[in-house]
C-alpha cells in the first residue's frame, strides 16, 4: 500500500470523527452545522494572538477526500459498515468558511474561523482544522512578539532543527515571515511558501579546519557574495581580531566580509567588544548577527542596552513557542439545524451561535476594544470576520503571503502601547453584546 | 514544479548546510567526520530521557538524495556554482550510524546517535537528524513519565489536534506508543506505524441532538462494539444517571455500554461520584476514561487519590511536551580526518572524539551510574551504543515497533526509584572516564 501524503490525508484525524460520522449517517443527521474555532483564554504571557494558517486550511478543505487506499483502511479496520464506506467515497467539503484574514490580531473568545456545512462535513474536518490553525497561530503570535521587541532590527528564523517535526519547521518559517521576520534558514520554506532564505555557517565548518582563520578564508572563497563568519567557536573577541587581520587579504581577492555571527555567552557584551574591534580595524560596515536562545525578552533587553547588533536569529523559542507551547483553543458546535447551542462543561462553557467581531479604535488608531456579537447583529466598528469559501469554493483568489505580511505589519501598528511593550497580563477588552447574551439565555432556557 | 514530500526532502535543511558543502567541495575536504547527537543538560523536570526517532532517521539516511526538482532549485537560487550542482547530483549518505536502540533511557552528554561519514555527508544530514531525534525523544520522554505515573493504568494519546503540525501528531502517536501508551486516537498513525487506534465521541455529537440520552442511544447503535459515551457536556453526574437509565434498553438490543468519558471539572471527584452512580445502577463493568489537560503530575495525583479511573487519555501536554517543549541538544563535530576536536564556546563546551556509554546496575538491577568514555576504551558494564548502519546500509533488519516498545518497558523497570517517582532535580550520575578526560586535554593542548 502506498502511504498518503501526511499533510493532505483525510485520515490525519481522530478515530472518533469517523465513528461519529457513521452515527450521523445512520440517523440521517445531515443538516447544517456551524462550528467556530477560537481560543478560550489568553495566558498572562500573551496579550494578543495573530491569526495564521488560513491558507493551509483552505487548501485542505478544497482537497479533502478519501483515496481508495484510505477507504480500504476504513473497510478493513472492522469498525465500520459497508454502507458507511460507500458514503465516505462521496464525502467532500461543500460548506462555507468565514475567517479572520491571516495576520489579523485577535483576543480571547473571538472565532478566527467558522465552518457552516452539513454536519458530517463540518465534523470530519475538525482535527486537521485545529491542528493547522493552532500551530501557525502559536508561531505567528510568538514571532510577532519578537518583531515588536526588535524595534525594526531584522529577524531570521533558525528554528527548523528543534521544531516538532518537518511540518512545524516549515509552518514556523511561514508564520514568522507573515509576522514580520525577514526570512528563514529553512530552504524548503522558500520552495513551498516563497519565504526568503538566509544562511551563515556552523561551528563544524570551523572545527573541521585546524586553523580558525583558514576556515574563515575558505568559507569566504566559497561564498564570496555572502560572507558571514561565525566567530565564537573558541574565543569571540579573538575571532573578531582574526576577521580584522583577514579582511585586507580577502579584499585583494575582491571579497568583502558582510558580517560576523555571535552564538554564545553574553551576546550584548560580546557585541560591544566585537563592534569596537571591527570598527578599530576599519570594518565598520561589517554587520553583527546574534543567535542563541533568543526570544522576545532577550531581544527587548538587547534593544534596551542599545547593543550594536544588526540581525537577530531566533530559533527554538519561537518555533516551539516555548513559554506557551499550545493554544487553549477549541472548535465547537454553535448551531445545528437552525438551533443555536453551546457546551456547558465546567470551566469550558462557550458562547452559542454564529458570531462576528467588531473592532473599535481610539483616536490614535489603536485598538480600543472589540465587540463579540451574533453574526446577524449589525454593529458599528470594523467587521473582522470575512467569507472565504462558499459551497466549498474560494470566493476570491488566495491572498499572496507578502500581502498578508503587510496586513500583519499594519495590525501590529494598531496594537495599543501596553501590548506593543509586551506587558504581562494586559490584553484588550472583548465586550459581549446584548444580542449574544440574549441568545445564550434563550439557548439555556431551551434545555 | 511538483512539491517534494516534506518528510523526505533533502531541502528540509538549513541553507548553511549547502553553503558549507560548497566550501568543503572546493577545498576537497571529504575526509571522515564524526558527529554525535546528545543533550547537553537535563532540566530539573526531566531526570531521564528516552531515545526515540531512530527508525525515521535510518529511513531518511537511506533515502536521502537530491531530486531533479531540488537540484533545479539549488541551481536557480544563484548561491551556488554549476560544479556544485553536479556534485550534489551524486550526493548519497554512505556512512556509518551508531545509536542507542529506540526506547533506551539516557542522560546528559550521552550521545544517542553517532554519524561517521565523509564530511559533506555527515554535515548535510544535520538539520533533519536533529529535527527527527529531538522531537520523538521529547515526546517519548514525556509519555514515559505519564506511563510511570499511571502505575499500570492504560494511556491513550489524544494529542493530534494540538500537536505542532501533521508530523508532530503522527510522531507523538508513535513515540508515546513506544513509551508504553496503549495506543492513539490518530487514525493515520495506525496506517503509518501500526499504532493501535482508539476513539470515543465528542461534545458536538451530543450537542447536535436536542436530547442528551438520544445522542447516547444513537451513538451506541452506530458503534455497538465500542460504546464509550461522553457524559460531561451539560452535567457529569446527570449524564451518568442517563447512562444507568439507558443501559437496560440497550441491553435489550444486545448492546453493552463499555465505558463513559469525563472531560472537565475535578476529574477525581467526578470519577468517584460517577463510579457510585454506575455501580448502584448495576453497571459496575462500565469503565471510566478521563481526559482533559492531563499530564504526569495530574495522573500521579489521580493514582494517589485512588480515583476509580480505568483509562487515561493524554493529549496536548504530552504532544507539546508542554513543560519542556524542546531538548537542549546538539549535533557536534567530534573528530575530523582522524583528529578529535571540540567546540569551546562559553557554556557550550563538549567532550571530544567518538564516545561510548557503559551502564552499571545496582544489586536490584536498577541503573546505578553510567560511564562516558572514548569508543575504543573498553570498559566493564553494559555497552549502550550499537552499530545500526554500515556504509549507508542497515546491518540488520529494522526492529519492529512492538519490540522496541518491550525494550522501552524493560528500560523503565531499570530506572532507580527516585526517577520512577519523577522526583524533580534528580538524575543519574554520568561519570567521565579518564580516557575521555585525557583526550579532551590532548585536544586542547593541540590548539
From TrEMBL, chains A, B:
UniProt-listed Enzyme Commission number(s): 6.3.4.21
One MF term in the entry's GO annotations: glycosyltransferase activity
CDD domains assigned: NAPRTase_A
Keyword Translocase: no
Metal-binding is among the record's keywords: no
Coiled coil start-end: none
Enzyme class: ligase
Domain (Nicotinate/nicotinamide phosphoribosyltransferase) ranges: 155-276
Entry superkingdom: Bacteria
Keywords, comma-separated and alphabetical: Glycosyltransferase, Ligase, Phosphoprotein, Pyridine nucleotide biosynthesis, Transferase
Pfam family, any one: NAPRTase
PANTHER family, per database record: NICOTINATE PHOSPHORIBOSYLTRANSFERASE
Family: Belongs to the NAPRTase family.
Protein name: Nicotinate phosphoribosyltransferase
Lineage: Bacteria, Pseudomonadati, Nitrospirota, Nitrospiria, Nitrospirales
Amino acid at each position: 500500500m502506498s502511504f498518503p501524503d501526511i499533510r493532505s490525508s483525510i485520515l490525519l484525524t481522530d478515530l472518533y470523527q469517523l465513528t461519529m460520522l457513521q452515527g450521523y449517517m445512520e440517523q440521517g443527521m445531515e443538516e447544517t452545522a456551524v462550528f467556530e474555532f477560537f481560543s478560550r483564554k489568553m495566558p498572562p504571557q500573551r496579550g494578543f494572538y495573530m491569526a495564521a494558517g488560513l491558507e493551509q486550511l483552505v487548501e485542505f478543505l478544497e482537497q479533502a477526500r478519501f483515496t481508495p487506499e484510505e477507504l480500504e483502511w476504513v473497510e478493513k479496520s472492522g469498525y465500520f459498515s459497508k454502507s458507511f464506506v460507500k458514503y465516505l467515497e462521496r464525502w467532500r467539503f461543500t460548506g462555507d468558511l468565514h475567517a479572520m484574514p491571516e495576520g489579523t490580531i485577535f483576543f480571547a473568545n473571538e472565532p478566527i474561523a467558522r465552518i457552516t456545512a452539513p454536519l458530517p462535513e463540518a465534523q470530519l474536518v475538525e482535527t486537521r482544522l485545529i491542528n493547522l490553525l493552532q500551530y501557525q497561530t502559536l508561531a505567528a503570535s510568538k514571532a510577532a512578539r519578537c518583531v515588536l521587541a526588535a524595534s525594526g532590527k531584522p529577524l531570521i528564523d533558525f528554528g527548523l532543527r528543534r521544531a516538532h517535526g518537518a511540518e512545524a519547521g516549515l509552518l514556523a518559517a511561514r508564520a514568522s515571515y507573515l509576522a514580520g521576520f525577514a526570512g528563514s534558514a529553512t530552504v524548503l520554506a522558500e520552495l513551498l511558501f516563497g519565504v526568503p532564505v538566509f544562511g551563515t555557517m556552523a561551528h563544524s565548518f570551523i572545527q573541521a579546519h585546524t586553523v580558525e582563520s583558514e576556515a574563515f578564508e575558505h568559507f569566504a572563497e566559497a561564498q564570496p557574495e555572502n560572507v558571514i563568519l561565525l566567530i565564537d567557536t573558541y574565543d569571540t573577541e579573538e575571532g573578531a581580531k582574526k576577521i580584522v587581520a583577514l579582511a585586507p587579504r580577502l579584499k585583494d581577492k575582491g571579497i568583502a566580509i558582510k558580517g560576523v555571527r555571535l552564538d554564545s555567552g553574553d551576546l550584548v557584551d560580546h557585541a560591544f567588544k566585537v563592534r569596537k574591534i571591527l570598527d578599530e580595524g576599519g570594518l565598520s560596515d561589517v554587520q553583527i548577527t546574534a543567535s542563541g536562545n533568543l526570544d522576545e525578552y532577550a531581544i527587548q533587553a538587547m534593544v534596551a542596552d542599545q547593543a550594536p547588533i544588526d540581525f537577530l536569529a531566533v530559533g527554538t523559542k519561537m518555533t516551539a513557542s516555548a513559554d506557551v507551547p499550545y493554544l487553549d483553543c477549541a472548535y465547537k458546535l454553535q448551531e445545528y439545524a437552525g438551533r443555536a447551542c453551546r457546551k456547558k462543561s465546567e470551566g469550558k462553557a462557550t458562547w452559542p451561535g454564529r458570531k462576528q467581531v467588531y473592532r473599535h479604535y481610539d483616536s490614535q488608531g489603536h485598538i480600543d476594544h472589540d465587540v463579540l456579537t451574533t453574526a446577524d447583529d449589525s454593529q458599528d466598528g470594523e467587521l473582522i470576520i470575512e467569507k472565504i469559501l462558499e459551497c466549498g469554493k474560494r470566493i476570491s483568489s488566495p491572498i499572496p503571503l507578502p500581502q498578508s505580511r503587510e496586513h500583519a505589519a499594519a495590525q501590529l501598528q494598531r496594537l495599543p502601547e501596553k501590548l506593543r511593550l509586551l506587558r504581562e497580563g494586559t490584553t484588550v477588552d472583548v465586550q459581549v453584546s446584548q444580542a449574544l447574551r440574549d441568545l445564550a439565555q434563550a439557548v439555556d432556557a431551551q434545555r
